[in-house]
Predict the structure.
Amino acid sequence: MIVGVHTPETPGERDVERIKAQAAKHGLKFPIAVDNDGSNWKAWNNRYWPTVYVVDRRGRVRYGWEGELNYRGATGEETVRKLVEALLLERP
């Protein structure tokens, strides 16, 4: 399951209708929580936009990636995909 949490960087990114429109425009069909007050951001001690976490079936954070997954040749997307595939094979 994918869950997005949107914490705005600028005041213009706080508009929920705009967030919905952008999600639809980019074909995002997973739930997106809007963290306008930054409480979720602070609870996870995030430092960079975006930050990706992979959480296993038991709710344990198994991996984290800060920043764009494919920025300047980074292999974040591939790394995350492989980890998710491995976790899906684990016994519940």
